[in-house]
Amino acid sequence: MSTLTKPWQQGAQQAWASLAHGWRDLRRRAGGALTRFRRSDLSGRDARASWGLVAADLRVEDDRIIVRMELPGMNREDLQIDIDGDRLSVSGEKHLEQESGDGSYRLVQCAYGSFRRNLVLPHAVDAERTQAHYRSGVLRIDMPRADRERGRRIPVHAA
Known about the structure:
It comes from Simplicispira hankyongi. Belongs to the small heat shock protein (HSP20) family. It holds the Pfam family HSP20. With 159 residues, the chain is an alpha+beta fold. It has one helix at residues 5-30, and strands at residues 34-37, 50-53, 56-60, 64-70, 79-84, 87-94, 113-120, 131-135, 138-144. The model has no long low-confidence stretch (mean pLDDT 80).
């Protein structure tokens, strides 16, 4: 192997390793946010499901759990929130607003249709006192932690 080829090969291997690490990190961080959107109107030319990101932050405090989800372009009336045991489910429908005119889309990167995003909650919450607010494309769900005992240590006695 020539002396010029070896440094080039090492550089290419380092670049490939760095690129592979970046993709693995992106997949790890965004994998949970990847959400399937299903078109509800099958009359459209392209009725296939598409994928989009529904990014979420989940913060645990002493007395509550706060979830923030980025849902731009939605109306609050199109959102539904359910809590079932340790699972938070946010579903809704993002509508494509048709603009009048003679043009046609050349690029569509936004996801439209119905979706459901599920998050496993790390602690029990009081669903009755949960509040949700939607403003500027961000849904904030404030869930008070349940008052029930979170667990305790059981002493072992001699028989």
